[in-house]
Amino acid sequence: MSDAPSLRTSQLVALGAGALKRKATFRVYPKKFTVAVDGSRLGFRAVKLAAWLMDEGTRDKVTCVCLTKDITRQEALSLCKEAEDMLKEAGVPRQCIAPCQVIDIPTDSTIAANLAKAASGSILVMGSGGKRLQSEWDRDHVKAKAASGSVANACMNDCAAPVILAKPVGVPSLDGPKFYEKRQHGDPMTIVLPVDGSQMSQKSFDMAARLVKPGDVVKVLHVSNSDKQMLRPNGEANAMLGETALVQYYKGECAKASSRFQAAFEFCQTPIQSSSISTTILKFEDAIQADMIIMASNEMAKDSATGAGTLGSVASTVAKKTFAHMLIAKSFAK
């Protein structure tokens, strides 16, 4: 998703939203959460967040991994065991806790590369920053609670699996020892899901459907803009050309998902603010105090003149500035 207004979405939708066709009904698959434990408070919060998102009914599992970066293997194993004990004490069934892993980092490798490898085929959950960010949090709560560290940024960009960044604020129930019990008894969360006319937006929608539980609220957000350069045959400017198809598609998807999962999928539309899609998303998220944002990893409305990296500029900006937990949906999401 480019951070500036783009015609690409409206052009796609004007042609009938060719990418937006569901081939099958929603299916829910077992999920595995690989959690990076580094001894920081945010690392342990990531462990809690993984348990919050898992579903016993689909036989989800969570496994803790710790890298021997500046610590011994025994110290790494102790951190993993501490995380596992926290899960057990919270009430997570033992069959949902997969054996932990201690990973030695080769001298020619990076933390992000090893975490990406460990998370293959699963969902990587990690703190948005390690002990450095924890120190910043102790000094300045407002600034640090939205930040993300260099390892988190590298994982968002390079990891083939979906990546969830745990922030200090989202899902307040995580601050208490009975967080898992509260979730099992219906404590809800609110998710913001920005969409456009791309297939990756549809995959992000499907990822949200894999994570919700009854009572959750998913705000499916379309940031719209007037396409002044798209003209009718008689030369009259046609604002919002083609967006009707996108709106109809996601309203239909929201209705089906709400019925299937007993969660409130609500389609929302807002005009772009300050010529910035990321700013618009962040203002919307802040206004409703969302617990999580789910976005696609790539440029959803790619600027062909400049190209795009693995992680889109909008997703990158939102991840670094949001107070909510952030999920970067990758292409394997079903």
Structure description:
This protein has 334 residues and is an alpha/beta fold. Helices cover 38% and strands 16% of the residues. The chain has two domains: 1-27 and 188-334, HUPs (Rossmann fold), CATH 3.40.50.620; 31-186, Rossmann fold, CATH 3.40.50. The protein is built from twelve helices and ten strands. The two termini are 20 Å apart.
Name the descriptors.
10-stranded mixed β-sheet; 12 helices; Rossmann fold; alpha/beta; 334 residues; 2 domains; single chain
Q: Work out the count of structural domains.
A: 2
Oligomer: single chain
The CATH architecture of the largest domain: 3-Layer(aba) Sandwich
Estimated share of beta-strand residues: 15-25%
Order of helices and strands: HEHEHEHEHHHEHEHEHEHEHE
| Helical fraction | 25-40%
For this structure, what is the CATH homologous superfamily of the largest domain?
Answer: HUPs
Report mean pLDDT, rounded to a whole number: 81
Q: Tell the overall outline.
A: globular
Strand order of the largest sheet: 3-2-1-4-5-10-9-6-7-8
C-alpha Rg (nearest Å): 20 Å
Short description:
This protein has 334 residues and is α/β, with parallel strands linked by helices.
Q: Which helices and strands, and how do they pair?
A:
Layout: H1 8-14, E1 32-36, H2 41-53, E2 61-67, H3 73-90, E3 101-103, H4 111-118, E4 123-127, H5 131-139, H6 141-144, H7 150-158, E5 163-166, H8 179-184, E6 190-194, H9 199-211, E7 217-224, H10 243-261, E8 264-271, H11 277-288, E9 292-296, H12 313-321, E10 325-329
Parallel strand pairs: 1-2, 1-4, 2-3, 4-5, 6-7, 6-9, 7-8, 9-10
Antiparallel strand pairs: 5-10
Helix pairs in contact: 1-10, 4-7, 11-12
